[in-house]
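Case 203 in the screening queue. Each case pairs one protein sequence with one candidate compound; here the compound is magnesium ion. For every case the pipeline is the same: read the inputs, emit a complex structure as C-alpha cells, and attach any notable structural observations.

Predict complex for case 203.
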Amino acid sequence: MENPDTVLHIEGLEFAYRGGRRLYEAFSLRLRRGECVGIVGPSGIGKSTLFELIAGNLRPRKGRIEHGRLGWVFQDPYSSFHPSYTIAKQIEEVAATRDFAEHLEALRLDRSLLERYPHELSGGQLQRCSILRALSMEPDLLLCDEPTSALDNITQLETMKLLVRLLDRVGILLITHDMDLARWACDRIVELEEGATTHKGVA
Ligand code: ADP
Ligand code: MG
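Case 203 output:
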C-alpha cells in the first residue's frame, strides 16, 4: 500500500453471491491505523460478507481490496476456541510473537487464566482472550464481527473500552447492528441499508 498508515483500502468493490442480489456496488473505504470504523446495518445486509471479502475467502466481482496483516475477533468467544485445549496452547499456535504477554495487563487478564480451558472462563474473560489471540498475530487491521454482542451490557462496555484502547497500534473495522455502540466507539460509521450499499464517497 502506498501509504504506510493505511491498513485497509477498498476501491470500487462489487459483489453478489451466485444467483443472489448485489450486496456491494462501487463500494470504497479507506482505514488508517488509529481509526475505528463501524459497519452498521440490519441482519442479512452483507456485513459478514464484507469480512469474508477482506479475508480473501470470497472474490469480488470487481474492485480492489488491499490490507495489512489481519487479526479477527468473532461474536461468540466459546465457539471461536476449541473446547479441549488450553487458551495458551491455542494462542501459541497462531501467535506471530512469543511476547503476547505484554498485552495481558492492557486486557486485564491474569496470566493463570491462559492455562485454563475455554469453558472455565466467563464470556467476558474469554472474549478478552480472543482479543489477546488476535493481538498476538501482530495485526495492522483488526476485524471485529459483533465482538461484544454475546456479552452482558456491563462486560460489553468494558470489552469495547479495551478494544478502543488498542487503537495506537491497529486500525479497527467494527461490525455491529448496534448503532449506539458504533456511535460511541467509532470515528466513522458506514451504514448499510437495503438497496443502498453504494458508498462512493466513503474513501
Ligand atoms: P450480515 O452479516 O449483515 O447479517 P451476511 O453477510 O451474513 O449478512 O449475509 C448477507 C446476505 O448474503 C444474506 O442475504 C445471506 O443470506 C446471503 N449469504 C450469506 N452467505 C451466503 C453464501 N455463502 N451463499 C449465498 N448467500 C449467502
Ligand atoms: Mg453477520
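Case 203 observations:
- The domain at 36-59+69-187 is CATH 3.40.50.300 (Rossmann fold).
- The CA atoms of residues 5 and 32 lie 5 Å apart.
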